[in-house]
Design brief:
By secondary structure, the chain is α/β, with parallel strands linked by helices. Helix content is 32%, strand content 19%. The strands form two sheets. A six-stranded parallel β-sheet has the order 2-1-3-4-5-8, with helices on both faces. A two-stranded antiparallel ribbon has the order 6-7. Helix 1 packs across helix 5 and helix 3 packs parallel to helix 4. 44% of the residues are buried.
């Protein structure tokens, strides 16, 4: 867990929809360490204060059907409306900047990003809906992104799990009450320009 970011979740309940990976595991650990309570099972998603929707982060993996994902997120948002809440999509940075090498993965993620923004418009101001778009993030191996992204990443390296976690904590922080419909790219600047040759 990143020591740089601390938030006070004051017992807020957190549910996960989607796949797990090292980033998701670290996010859940950080949310628990900051006072969140992880709940499991489909019925608890609608009762959660914060819903994390974890999508595949590596090109070459198939994203869930965006229509089904949107329907599930919309159902959860409708259940949260009276009390308020947050939905945070964990997606690939390719959602905001397609990669020629991975057209299908780019399209699937762009569709998820568009659905996230539609939910933010429909359910604001009670529900804040955002996304974190991960570029190349590695631990012992790449958890997110494509190694080819590194040749066009201005910071010159892959991101760490701690850096990825800090971005998710930003959207979960109760003090962040004005940001919705946004994708925060944690990609080392990869999406800053697209004069790419791959």
């Amino acid at each position: 867990m990143s020591a740089a970011m601390e938030i006070d979740l004051a017992g807020a309940t957190i549910a996960l929809d989607g796949e797990t990976n090292a980033i998701v595991d670290a996010v859940l650990a950080a949310l628990r360490a900051n006072g969140g309570r992880i709940v499991e099972g489909a019925p608890t998603r609608a009762a959660a204060d914060i819903l994390l929707i974890s999508c595949p982060l590596r090109p070459g993996t198939k994203a869930e059907d965006p229509r089904s994902l949107y329907a599930d997120a919309r159902k959860a948002a409708a259940a949260m409306t009276e009390r308020g809440g947050r939905i945070v999509f964990l997606i690939s940075a390719i959602a905001g900047m397609p990669m020629r090498r991975h057209p299908r993965f780019s399209m699937e993620n762009a569709s998820i990003l568009a659905g996230m923004r539609a939910l933010a418009m429909e359910f604001g101001p009670k529900i804040l809906v955002n996304a974190v778009g991960f570029g190349a993030v590695e631990d012992d191996a790449f958890i997110s992104g494509d190694k080819a992204m590194l040749s066009h990443t201005p910071v010159g390296r892959a991101g760490s799990i701690e850096e990825a976690v800090a971005a998710v904590l930003f959207f979960c922080d109760p003090l962040n009450s004005y940001t919705t419909g946004q994708m925060l790219g944690v990609d080392g600047g990869w999406a800053a320009g697209y004069g790419r040759n791959f």
